[in-house]
Design a protein that fits this description.
- The chain is an alpha/beta fold and about 350 residues long.
- It has 12 helices and 14 strands.
- It has 2 domains: about 260 residues, P-loop containing nucleotide triphosphate hydrolases (Rossmann fold, 3-Layer(aba) Sandwich), CATH 3.40.50.300; about 70 residues, 2-Layer Sandwich (Alpha-Beta Plaits), CATH 3.30.70.
- The radius of gyration is 24 Å and the shape is globular.
- The C terminus is likely disordered.
């Protein structure tokens, strides 16, 4: 659905994006991450047609965004970090304007009613946008991206300004949208990306540093995949019992956490899942399992290890045979913000 081939963007001698390639399948939710100044905003602005690339191609459903921008943009719903709202319009006026701007052919009343129900803005439909809270403005921005039911959604910080309840609702909505749309989600809230996305792409210093699922990235970075089990039972007997489980390599009992309750660090053969068998055996002895967690890296751990100069680079594309790129210009994110503020009728994707 989305294909990026050898994409580069240079500002003079500075490389904001340096020969990156990745693709997004139909119905996939891709998390696109990177530290400030990594080239993330530049890449997304190229994908949505706000700026042109120096070289390479960005294809939306097989259509090159530079060669046929009108056709490519018609397939994109875009929510920038700062939604392109006309503050003096009511929500109704604004969404009807976007409907006409996109030349939408769906039934107007039913389509807009469905979108408002999805993003939960029905109760503010007749209110002026400038009088809405930041969270509601963000929802209106998401609504405009959904007008026309585009097959591709590109969402930049979709939960900014929302309260915890609203964040959970938008996460659920994005998961639901992923059933019928191809979604690129960029967010600095890494737990959100990990909860929603099928795959993660991390860009660092203009290049793709990682491209895989969070689970596979964790396995690539470290082989330390242990379970920590908190069990209420006789310490020595619990250790002996766990050691009899097929696949267990090592068991270490930690300090007593409560009266008669210990944490046990359990290491198993790679690829072996002992959780169900562990539960069954403890239950047969009537020893309560009070907690179970994995020591696998979180997405935040993975992101920091890849981007904080620890020499870790995990990617699916072949590296270029040339010297390392110079550091990206400091104004990369600034340029992205300026483009994101453009009005919806400037020819950019909506």
């Amino acid at each position: 659905m989305i294909e990026v081939k050898n994409l580069s963007k240079h500002y003079g001698e500075k490389r904001a994006v340096d020969n990156i390639s990745f693709s997004v399948k139909e119905g996939e939710i891709l998390g696109f991450l990177g530290p400030n100044g990594a080239g993330k905003s530049t890449t997304m602005n190229i994908l949505t047609g706000y700026i042109s690339s120096t070289s390479g191609n960005a294809l939306i459903n097989g259509v090159d965004i530079l060669e046929n921008p009108a056709k490519a943009k018609a397939q994109i719903g875009y929510l920038p970090e700062i939604p392109p709202l006309y503050l003096d319009m009511t929500v109704k006026e604004y969404l009807n304007f976007i409907y006409d701007l996109k030349k939408c052919k769906l039934n107007r009343e039913n389509h807009l009613k469905e979108i408002c129900g999805l993003v939960k803005i029905t109760d503010v439909y007749n209110r002026i946008i400038k009088n809405l809270s930041k969270g509601y403005k963000q929802r209106v921005g998401l609504a405009q991206a959904l007008v026309g039911n585009p097959p591709v959604l590109i969402l930049y910080e979709p939960t900014v300004g929302l309260d915890p309840k609203q964040i959970i609702e938008i996460r659920s909505l994005i998961k639901k949208l992923g059933e019928k749309h191809t979604v690129i989600l960029s967010s600095h809230i890494l737990s959100e990306v990990q909860a929603v996305c099928d795959r993660i792409v991390i860009i660092n210093r203009g290049r793709i540093a990682a491209d895989d699922t969070a689970e596979n990235l964790s396995k690539s970075i470290t082989n330390d995949h242990k379970l920590i089990a908190r069990i209420d039972g006789p310490r020595d007997e619990v250790v002996k019992l766990i050691r009899t489980i097929n696949g267990v390599v090592k068991v270490v009992a930690d300090m007593e956490r409560e009266n008669g309750v210990y944490d046990y660090e359990i290491e198993a053969v790679e690829g072996t899942d002992i959780r169900r068998e562990l539960f069954k055996r403890l239950a047969s002895r009537n020893w309560p399992l009070l907690g179970l967690k994995s020591t696998e890296l979180t997405l935040e751990d993975i992101f920091l290890k890849i981007t904080m100069g620890e020499g870790i680079e995990i990617k699916t594309q072949k590296p270029k045979e040339e010297t390392a790129p110079t550091e990206e210009p400091a104004n990369d994110e600034t340029n992205g913000d300026e483009n994101k503020n453009a009005n919806v009728n400037d020819g950019g994707a909506n």
